[in-house]
Amino acid sequence: MAIALGSAAEVTTALQQAVALESLAAAQVAEALELADRIRAMTYRLATR
Fold it and tell me: pTM score > 0.90 for this model?
């Protein structure tokens, strides 16, 4: 579970960096960031059961 949690965090960081570097617009990554956040939350809940 730790690997999955880390991978989801990596995706979030990469998307945030793309926005910061103006490679992508915030609107373009908004849905992906929401999904990554949901995946991190689900993974965390599974890992701490």
Answer: no
Write the pLDDT tens digit of every residue in 4-49.
Answer: 889 999 999 999 999 999 999 999 999 999 999 999 999 999 998 8
What does the radius of gyration of the chain's CA atoms come to, in whole angstroms? 12
Asked if residues 11 and 43 have their Cβ atoms less than 8 Å apart, the reply is: no
Instruction: Round to whole Å and give the CA distance between 13 and 36.
Output: 10
Structural domain of 27:
2-47
Nearest to 29 by CA among 44, 43, 11: 11
Conformational region of residue 22, where left means phi above 0, alpha means psi within -120 to 50, and beta covers everything else: left
